[in-house]
Structure formats: C-alpha cells, structure tokens
Amino acid sequence: MSDQPAPAETARQELGPRTADAIRAYAARTRADADQYAAVLEDIATNGLPSVEDCTPWEELREAQLARLAAQRPAVA
After folding, report:
1. What are phi and psi of 37, to 5 degrees?
2. Which of 20, 26, 35, 53 has the fewest CB within 10 Å, making it most exposed?
3. Is 73 helix (H, G, I), strand (E, B) or coil?
4. Choice between 9 and 21, residue whose per-residue pLDDT is larger
5. pLDDT of 33 higher than 80
6. DSSP classification of residue 2
7. 28-42 mean pLDDT
8. Where are any strands of DSSP class E within the chain?
9. How far apart are alpha carbons 20 and 26 in whole angstroms?
10. What are phi and psi of 58, to 5 degrees?
11. Is residue 76 pLDDT above 90, yes or no?
12. Burial of 70 (0-12, 13-18, 19+ CB in 10 A)
C-alpha cells in the first residue's frame, strides 16, 4: 500500500436527457448482442459444433455483409 492519500473524487458531468437515452439504447443493443452470442455458445456446449455441410462459408457471409453495407451507402454520381 502507498502512503499517498487517495485522489479526491472528481465531479461527474451530467448528461442531457437525449444523450442519456442514446447511451441506454446502446447498452440495450449491446446486452442483446451479448445474450445472443451467449446463447450460441451454450448451444455449442450442449450440442457440439454443427456439421460443415450445415454451415455457410465465411466468404458468402462476407460478400452478403459487403452488399448490405454498399446498399446503405449513398450512390456517388
């Protein structure tokens, strides 16, 4: 332990209602994503890994995601 005193508490900056709501919404989305990920891991632990034939190759997943991102982007003239 150090002989130095603990630093004084710093005051927190209050957030506006819209900012606080946006942070709560982000937290809810993050929690939902984590719950979904945990459910997948629990399924794998219970049932094992799926067979290769039942899986989608990562290249197809990548191309689908890139197509979704390109569709969201405004077209350049």
Report:
1. -60, -45
2. 53
3. coil
4. 21
5. yes
6. -
7. 97
8. none
9. 10
10. -65, -30
11. no
12. exposed
